Amino acid sequence: MIKYNWDTVKEEQNVGSCETMQVTREEASGKERKLYIESYGCQMNFSDSEIVTSIMKKDGFGTTSQYESADVIFINTCSIREKAEQTIRKRLRQFNGIKKEKPELMVGILGCMAERLKSKLLDEEKIVDLVVGPDAYRDLPSLVRKVDDGQKAVNTFLSREETYADISPVRLNSNGVTAFISIMRGCDNMCSFCVVPYTRGRERSRDPYSILNEARNLFARGYREVTLLGQNVDSYKWSEAENNKSRLDRNLEIDSYVDFAQLLEMVANIDPDLRVRFSTSHPKDITDAVLITMAGYENICKYIHLPAQSGNTRVLDLMNRTYTREWYLDKIASIRRIVGADCGISSDWITGFCSETEDEHKDTISLMESVKFDFSYMFAYSERPGTPASKKFKDDIPMEIKKQRLQEIIDLQSRHSMERNSEDINKVHKVLIEGYSKRSKEHLQGRTSTNKVVVFPAGDYHKGQYVHVKINECTSATLLGEVMKA
Ligand code: SAH
Ligand code: SF4
Ligand code: F3S
To answer: Which ligand has an atom closest to residue 44 CA?
Structure first.
């Protein structure tokens, strides 16, 4: 799937649940220092680690990959559920052992947990020297120097403008074929359960010039797929006037106002061989213009991640999702009508939100039944301190019930994934090859436009190539097939 590395459901992406990178720096003394970065959470965080690496490289750091020999460790953290934070605290305890043997080791907490807990983290986790929020990465080199001088360093300033537009990310653990491009930061929605507006700040859109340049550059380097990333891509908007772009800078292909449908079209026009994906769409904001643009370009992938969260209108209202069950179903009908019945559709769900009754949970099940999603990310509700839900509602559904409801929807989704995948048997799909299959070097794997993973005998094919694959078999997670010779 295209977006998250959640703690409960692992994605089948070109990155694992945690991704690492090491960076080294030649000090004036001639002693080489090493920095190691580990990332958790959503794709935005992984994308940010690529920006952090770029900033550190510019400051003289090189790259390698062994945390035991690191002088500086950065952990780019996630706060979305309590379990995500617990995982990071456990990891800190592991690093504590290393620090005992090597007291000069510097440990930095980056990302959402840094933003949520700020300098409290320094008191709670003695091992931590540096706390840096998602909008303060440009300050990293000077914060590192501050720690070098024997102080603790904190910067959790949230910006209304920062998009790191001019920073060219260093691609980490890349397959050389698919890449993520961050098009916006922050979130202005106030879903009552969600910590993101507090950890990532206000929504802001990145300059389309820099997005197009990044995509063109990736294509020139052999990449064949880009995923445009944001918490709510449909509310992307950029205007020349607001951003003080002078006429002289202006590339004539870009209008003075750009919305998401236009941005999508501009990226799709770079080259028919560059596939374009995007994530995440919000049911309240996705427009027919986006769907029409998708339908008009073969290289815009026919796949939409449209998180519903619940199938019950009262619960959706408590969640402040600002749409009803009927509105959501209407959006699904528009997708099927405009993009096509085959369009891949996935969702996120939360079970056991405050006061959710058994009947309301059944509405989630019936919504799943009527849409038959290709895939879902599913979670038990986890109360997050400071969110509207934590202030207004009681987290009153026992964990046992939350888990029971979660298991029910996991089982249902797995049946639906199998059903949807079976519909592909005997069909031919255009697949972009991403590399060898996880199980064997004799098989390659890639994705269909609808975001299904396809495994097939390798033959003479190679990654980055498009092939037409006839699907012969499937599991609930994978399609298996063979390449059709032209
Ligand atoms: N911007 C995206 C989602 C970001 S968070 C959107 O609007 O859909 C990713 C997913 O984590 C959410 O869709 C939700 O299903 C889940 N999530 C967020 N907060 C949660 C919480 N407090 N407990 C459980 N799951 C949560
Ligand atoms: Fe969180 Fe809602 Fe924003 Fe998604 S849209 S990041 S769920 S507040
Ligand atoms: Fe992403 Fe987790 Fe932050 S989901 S935005 S890293 S809280």
So the answer is: 3
Q: Look up residue 196 and give its two tokens.
A: 């993101």
**pLDDT score of 257:** 86
The phi and psi torsions of 398 (rounded to 5 degrees) equal -60, 145
Sign (positive or negative) of CA dihedral 256, 203, 329, 11: positive
Q: Residues with Cβ < 8 Å from 50, sequence gap 6 or more?
A: 169, 170, 171, 172
Specify the ligand 1 atom closest to the Cα of 282: 7
Gap from CA of 483 to ligand 1 centroid (Å)? 38
Cα(484)–Cα(486) distance, rounded to whole angstroms?
Answer: 6
Residues with CB under 6 A from ligand 2: 187, 189, 191, 194, 196-197, 231-232, 282
User: What's the pLDDT at 11?
Assistant: 28
Question: What's the whole-number mean pLDDT along residues 89-93?
Answer: 94
Question: 2 pLDDT band (50/70/90 cuts)?
Answer: very low
The ligand with the least distance to the CA atom of 190 is 2
Q: What is the pLDDT of residues 416-428, one digit of tens each?
A: 999 999 999 999 9
Do 482 and 469 meet the contact criterion of CB atoms below 8 Å apart? yes
Q: Tell the residue nearest (CA) to atom 1 of ligand 3.
A: 42
Residue partners of 195: CB distance under 8 A and separation at least 6: 79, 80, 112, 116, 384, 386, 387
pLDDT confidence of residue 154: 97
**C-beta of 45 in contact with ligand 3 (< 6 A):** yes
392: Cα separation from own chain's centroid: 29
Tell whether ligand 3 has an atom less than 6 A from the beta carbon of residue 128. no
pLDDT at 253: 58
List the beta strands (DSSP E) in 235-394.
Answer: 237-239, 257-259, 275-279, 303-305, 344-351, 375-380
What pLDDT shows up at residue 344?
A: 98
Q: Give the model confidence (pLDDT) of 114-171 as tens digits.
A: 999 999 999 999 999 999 999 999 999 999 999 999 999 999 999 999 999 999 998 9
Instruction: Tell how strand 375-380 and strand 257-259 pair up.
Output: unpaired
Q: Is pTM, for the whole model, over 0.90? A: yes
Residue minimizing CA distance to atom 14 of ligand 1 = 348
d(CA 205, CA 236): 6
> Which burial class, exposed, middle or buried, applies to 374 when counting CB atoms under 10 A from its CB (0-12, 13-18, 19+)?
buried
Rounded Cα distance between 339 and 257, Å, is: 25
Q: How far apart are CA 120 and CA 116, in angstroms?
A: 9
Q: Which residue has the higher pLDDT, 241 or 259?
A: 259
C-alpha of residue 229 to centroid of ligand 1, in Å = 15
Q: Is 3 in the pocket of ligand 1 (CB under 6 A)?
A: no
